[in-house]
Amino acid sequence: MTDLxxxxxxxxxxxxxxxxxxxxxxxxxxxxxxxxxxxxEKGEVYNGMDRIVRVGSHDGSDNLIKRLGHHFISKRRRxxxxxxxxxxxxxxxANDPYLEHWDRPFKSRKDKEKHKGFVDEEYEKKYExxxxxxxxxxxxxxxxxxxxxxxxxxxxxxxxxxxxxxxSEKIASKKWxxxxxxxxxxxxxxxxxxxxxxxxxLGLKEFRELIxxx
Length: 214
Prior knowledge:
By secondary structure, the chain is α+β, with helices and mostly antiparallel strands. The chain is 45% helix and 14% strand. It contains 9 helices and 4 strands.
């Protein structure tokens, strides 16, 4: 099987890049509010190119812009798995015992009743600010637009994630924040993804179809 690691980096590095604050109206026009995003992080380099550090999609239809907002705009992290991952790194670096409570759900009445003795929303704010600042200052992204079929979106997402994880070319800098993640899967994969690491990697034919049908 052809290792497409270098090819997907060459391709996505050549695409239009977005940074925070981005124009939501422009993104909606480009994407039809459906598609995938590919994230890059300052300081992460592969073969002279910016290194891909996460691939993501969205649930349902017409939710891509909303999903990006969960990562880049919202101050609260519970709707963003990505923000949870980044926060876990900051807590781990600080050797903060609150790490064990960071991922506790706290939205529904049932969750609040169950976890109210552990969750301190005021205390969490300082870490949520660190997370938001890191993402807004360090992360940029490109878009795979107008993928309306949920099954196709999922296949592309899982295929790219597994390709990045399973490649013999994968690399991360010593200063990458993800190296401080308590979950070895993040540290080993060198990307901010856990789901899809062991799926079937995107093949050459699928990759060609993706970029030619853009």
